Amino acid sequence: xxxxxxxxxxxxxxxxxxxxxxxxxxxxxxxxxxxxxxxxxxxxxxxxxxxxxxxxxxxxxxxxxxxxxxxxxxxxxxxxxxxxxxxxxxxxxxxxxxxxxxxxxxxxxxxxxxxxxxxxxxxxxxxxxxxxxxxxxxxxxxxxxxxxxxxxxxxxxxxxxxxxxxxxxxx
Length: 171
What we know:
Blueprint: E1 12-16, H1 22-29, H2 47-56, E2 65-69, E3 72-79, E4 86-90, H3 98-109, E5 117-122, H4 126-138, E6 147-152, E7 155-160
Antiparallel strand pairs: 1-2, 2-3, 3-4, 5-7, 6-7
Helix pairs in contact: 1-2, 3-4
């Protein structure tokens, strides 16, 4: 048996969502383990509509991406098609250090900060909070002028102010 690969050894890429990814988005959106962790339990049935919109929705004016780890579909990073908040998720086998890399790549290459951007996490999802915070820190988007961490009933979130420029931003 081979030892598990470290996060640095794994190849993490983002690809534009295609119609072939819609079944993956729906299936992964309906994983029971995500209800109450990635989104409120009350939104479970709404995943039948929300998940396909990640492909069909064109109102966010940004690219949403499938996260691939070692060439396999492993998650999603992009803007929520209903709220336009930043969101990401990974299937369980892909976790362990690749989420931060996916978020950093997405924010650096696909998301103009023309307006304030938000990300919300459910209380108790400390993993996602840590991953998102470390990605923003790596990009230099964690200073008080650019970034705000806040709590709300049932969770916590982040706000990145309009006009923010990630470090090493090619634009």
